[in-house]
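Pipeline run #58 for the internal structure catalog. This entry was flagged by the ingest filter as a single-chain record with no existing model, so it goes straight to prediction. Upstream metadata was stripped on purpose; only the residue string is passed forward. Reviewer on rotation: M.T. Logging verbosity set to normal.
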Amino acid sequence: MSSWINYPTILQGQTVNLIPLEEMHFPVLEQLAKDERIWQFYPFDGTDSSRILSVLTTALAERNVETRFPFVIVHKAENKIIGSTSLLDLQPKNLKLEIGSTWLHPDYWATPVNLECKLLLLTHCFEKLNTVRVQLKTDENNVRSRKAIEKIGGQLEGIFRNDMLRDNNTRRNSAYYSIIQEEWPEKKIKLAELYYLRQ
């Protein structure tokens, strides 16, 4: 598939596995997305079936042109899909990308799941893809998400004003964070410690 990210790339952890998004996953994700709490700070309303299916279809199309690699998050102990995440804006020439479009059913908020997802993704980025920069961003007002990014070691680079237009045509300011290659060894140790403390 991609010359930079091989298909199918599967990232295996202790709590979750990240497996490539496929069309057969759409019905499960559509039902998971019905919880409106998930979408409070997103630029679209994922509770709308046609909208979430459009988002998922676009994710697969972007994988086909090698600008994105979307995953579903599978909870190992429960053997079920609980959300989705992606490697976005793939730029192999510049060895950089973004981790984003991450959403989880609220039953798994404040659990080890997000920490392990980020540990798996960042390890793959820095140690397999040899990235020099990984970007993360979120709504300026999404305090929960910003704290989560800061907890895993993301450094705030700034607030991008009018960064995105929501489906309702309001404007979103985004907080941009990054982790760079030189920082990763130290941040990996801290992230792994955080994950194991949550077990």
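catalog note: The chain has a mean pLDDT of 95.
catalog note: The chain has one domain: 11-198.
status: ready for reviewer M.T.
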